[in-house]
Structures are given as structure tokens and as C-alpha cells.
Design the sequence.
């Protein structure tokens, strides 16, 4: 266990293992996402109330789900950065923040597109929407702070502090739908209860959520590899790797 | 800046207790502020001017102002606290006082808490004192003004405390002011929502106890956690330079 932990700190080791992992993540991600989306968009039954317009859920929920969980992952990595000064953790935070920003934007955008036919408006100032917007700002702040500090190490630690301070927003987003009476419908998936929709609807949804997770894993690995190559460009193994012409 | 304005800080002995050190930091910050009175006045002027913009820019109608007044005052207070945050550590950072503070044997988060308290007494508290006057100008009724003052009294320390984290993180950076707003405004939004929500609820005659309790919870949370985060951020920013 501890040996694994120490290895995790080595960028070189991560580079090797992620290169082996990435094809699987990509293949699995594309497969699940395609299956989920095609099933959801073409074959799942219509909603009795919303008709076909509800089908955007198969894109909206995965992006919103991931937008939040990416922030939680960043927070965990931030703790690791601050406590153990692990290089990889801060590479992770830095590489993943823009992905999280895009995911949050996509979930807000698809939410707006879904809101128009169902609520009759693109945007309402409802608790869930507002707190997702705050999440978007938080991602923006993290990226801006990271860019503003030149020194790599202090940038990593400053960003970690900021990420941890911003974590208060996550439970607010998660429970906003239950705490306040809002337009937004309650979550589809809960850990303790059965989903509130029939299996033909939630199975493809689950597939696309898992698919997007895998795809995110692939993208995170790819971005982390790039960042590692940049940071370690003066080391021996990176020179060897580049001279060998990508492996 | 005139060097005479800024008395040196002497807490060097280990025998100085943490509380005495906090008092010394607080007293020094007060002294520095009162030797540069214009810096004290600026956030207040800004507060008044931003509030003035709304009746002129949107509508001077009594009905609109009564409806939006509490929100306008809250937003203006938030912005003027934001504006004053840049000063919180900047001068101390420039002349090296901050480095001395970090090197003190007393825990840094307590000293940061003292500095933040001084910042609140110098900016937040005057805003609260000024609020009844502006409240009358935006046609709020007496009850609403009272509740508004109460929410600002609980809310502005939260703004100072959260802001101290941002100020510490952006210390010594290029374009720190804009960056500070980017980092801090998202964190201010919940305080703003509950602050104005309290007044709106009071205007409808509903009980405000629950809202005030929630704001009190924010204050306790910020009071206990923010000084640690700002102290950590200060150490990072200083090692950066």
C-alpha cells in the first residue's frame, strides 16, 4: 500500500502507467457513452409529461454530475498537495480545472436548452442554477490564480488553498434542490433509493454517466502527461522518451 | 509612503502572550489607519456613491427603491469591502512588516485574525453606521432599516474574513485587484443572498430569526476557519517573493 503511495508521487511512474491505461479508458468511455446516448436518444420511451424534450437529460446529467465530482477530486488532490507536497496531485489540479470549467459550462448550457421548452425560460435564478454558476466562477478563479503566479510550487499551494475554501459550495449544490423549493427537479440517482424513473430511462443515463467518467479519466491522463512532460523537460527520461519518437 | 506613519511592531519576546500580541497588532493597525485618514474615508465615499448610482441610473421611483433598496445597500457594502481588501496586507507586505509577523513566535492565524478584526472595525463597522442614513434615502421603512443594519453587522465581518483569504492569496501578484474580485465574489454570494433575504422577509412581516441564525452560522464558520486559510495563504505568498 505505502509503496504504491510513494510510486504515485513519481511523475515518471505515472507517465508509464497512464500510457498503458489510456487506450482502455478511451475505448470504454466512447463505447459506454455511445451506447448510453444512442439508447437514450433513439430507443428510450418518451416522458409522459415532457415528451421528447426530456432526452437532453442524457447529456445534461452526466456533465453536471462530473462538473461537481471533478471539483471534489480537485479538493482531494489539493489536500494531498498541501499535506504531502505530492507533485502529481498538483499536476492533477492544474490539468483538470479547465476540463471542469467546460463541463460546468456544458451542464449550464444544456440546462438552459432544456429549461426553455419545460419551464418556458432559458434561465431562472433558482438555487441549483445559481450555485452551479458559482461553481463555474470558482473554476474560473482557480485557473486565473494558477496563471497569475509564476512560481510553480507556490502556485500549486495557493491554488490548493483556494480549491479547499471553495469546497463549501459543493454540498450547497448537492442539496439545494432538497433544501429550497425550486423549479429544478430532484436528483435522478440517489445512493439509498431506487431511481424515480423506469429502467429503460435510467440505465442509459447511468451508462452515459459512467462513459463520461471514463472519457474524463482519459482526458485527465492526457493533460497530465502533457503537463508532466513540460515540467520534467530537463530530466533524462523525458529526453530519452522524446528522442525515441513517442515510445 | 511616509515611513514615520508606520510604527514598527515589537513583539519579539517569547513571553508576550498570544492575546497581548493580538492586541498589539490590532492597536498598531488602528494607529496606522488613523494616521492616513483618507484611506479610511475612501471605502465609505465609494459606498455612498455606488448607492447614489442606482436611483440615478435605474429609477428614482419610491416603489422600486423600496423593493430594491436593501439589495442595493448590500451590494454597495460588498463592493466597498472588496475595494478596501487590497490594503489589508499590501502595505505590510511592501515594507516587510508582514515578514516580521510571520516570524513571530505567536501563532500566525491569531495575528491574522487581529488584523482582520481591525480591518472590519475600520471599514465594515462605519458602513453599518452609515446604513440608516442611506436606508432613509432609498425609502426603506424603519423596521427594514433595523433588520438591514443587523444583517450588515453580522455579514460584514464575514466579508472581511473571507476577503482576507483572497487578499493573502493574491499578495504581490500583478493585477492583484481584479484577481482578488474574481476569487472572492463567488464566495460572497451566499452571504449576500441570506443578507438580502432577511430584509425581504422582514419587509413581508415574516419572522427573521431563522435567517439571522443562518447568518450567525456563516459568521462562526468564517471566524473559525478563515484565519487558518489566510495564514496558510500568507506563508505561501511570502515564500513566493
Sequence:
Amino acid at each position: 500500500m505505502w509503496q504504491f503511495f510513494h510510486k504515485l508521487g513519481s511523475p515518471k511512474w505515472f507517465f508509464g502507467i497512464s500510457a498503458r491505461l489510456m487506450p482502455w479508458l478511451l475505448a470504454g468511455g466512447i463505447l459506454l457513452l455511445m451506447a448510453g446516448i444512442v439508447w437514450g436518444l433513439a430507443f428510450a420511451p418518451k416522458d409522459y409529461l415532457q415528451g421528447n424534450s426530456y432526452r437532453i437529460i442524457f447529456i445534461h446529467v452526466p456533465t453536471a454530475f462530473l462538473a461537481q465530482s471533478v471539483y471534489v477530486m480537485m479538493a482531494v488532490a489539493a489536500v494531498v498537495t498541501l499535506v504531502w507536497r505530492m507533485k502529481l496531485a498538483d499536476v492533477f489540479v492544474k490539468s483538470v480545472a479547465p476540463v471542469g470549467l467546460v463541463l460546468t459550462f456544458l451542464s449550464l448550457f444544456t440546462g438552459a436548452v432544456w429549461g426553455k421548452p419545460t419551464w418556458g425560460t432559458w434561465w431562472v435564478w433558482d438555487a441549483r442554477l445559481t450555485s452551479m454558476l458559482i461553481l463555474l466562477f470558482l473554476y474560473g478563479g482557480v485557473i486565473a490564480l494558477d496563471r497569475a503566479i509564476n512560481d510553480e510550487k507556490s502556485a500549486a499551494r495557493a491554488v490548493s488553498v483556494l480549491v479547499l475554501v471553495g469546497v463549501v459550495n459543493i454540498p450547497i449544490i448537492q442539496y439545494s434542490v432538497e433544501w429550497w423549493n425550486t423549479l429544478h427537479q430532484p436528483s435522478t440517482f440517489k445512493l439509498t433509493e431506487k431511481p424515480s424513473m423506469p429502467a429503460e430511462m435510467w440505465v442509459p443515463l447511468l451508462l452515459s454517466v459512467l462513459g463520461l467518467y471514463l472519457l474524463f479519466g482519459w482526458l485527465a491522463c492526457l493533460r497530465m502527461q502533457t503537463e508532466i512532460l513540460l515540467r520534467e523537460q530537463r530530466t533524462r527520461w523525458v529526453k530519452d522518451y522524446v528522442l525515441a519518437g513517442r515510445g | 509612503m511616509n515611513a514615520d506613519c508606520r510604527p514598527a511592531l515589537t513583539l519579539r519576546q517569547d513571553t508576550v502572550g498570544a492575546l497581548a500580541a493580538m492586541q498589539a497588532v490590532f492597536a498598531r493597525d488602528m494607529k496606522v489607519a488613523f494616521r492616513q485618514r483618507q484611506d479610511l474615508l475612501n471605502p465609505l465615499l465609494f459606498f455612498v456613491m455606488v448607492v447614489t448610482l442606482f436611483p440615478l441610473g435605474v429609477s428614482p421611483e419610491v416603489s422600486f427603491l423600496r423593493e430594491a433598496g436593501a439589495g442595493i445597500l448590500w451590494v454597495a457594502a460588498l463592493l466597498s469591502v472588496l475595494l478596501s481588501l487590497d490594503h489589508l496586507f499590501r502595505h505590510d507586505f511592501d515594507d516587510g512588516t508582514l515578514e516580521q509577523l510571520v516570524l513571530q513566535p505567536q501563532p500566525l492565524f491569531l495575528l491574522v485574525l487581529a488584523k482582520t478584526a481591525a480591518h472590519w472595525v475600520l471599514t465594515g463597522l462605519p458602513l453599518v453606521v452609515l446604513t440608516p442614513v442611506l436606508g432613509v434615502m432609498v425609502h426603506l421603512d424603519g423596521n427594514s432599516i433595523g433588520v438591514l443594519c443587523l444583517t450588515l453587522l453580522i455579514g460584514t465581518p464575514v466579508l472581511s474574513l473571507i476577503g482576507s483569504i483572497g487578499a493573502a492569496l493574491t499578495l504581490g501578484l500583478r493585477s492583484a485587484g481584479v484577481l482578488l474580485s474574481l476569487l472572492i465574489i463567488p464566495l460572497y454570494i451566499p452571504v449576500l443572498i441570506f443578507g438580502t433575504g432577511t430584509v425581504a422577509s422582514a419587509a413581508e412581516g415574516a419572522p427573521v430569526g431563522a435567517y439571522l441564525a443562518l447568518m450567525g452560522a456563516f459568521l462562526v464558520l468564517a471566524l473559525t476557519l478563515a484565519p487558518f486559510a489566510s495564514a496558510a495563504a500568507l506563508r505561501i505568498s511570502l515564500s513566493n517573493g
Notes: Residues 14-243 of chain A form a domain with the Four Helix Bundle (Hemerythrin (Met), subunit A) fold (CATH 1.20.120). The interface with chain B takes residues 82, 130, 134, 137-138, 140-141, 144-145, 148-149, 151, 154, 157-158, 161-162, 164-166, 168-169, 172 of chain A (CB under 8 Å). Chain A has one domain: 14-243.
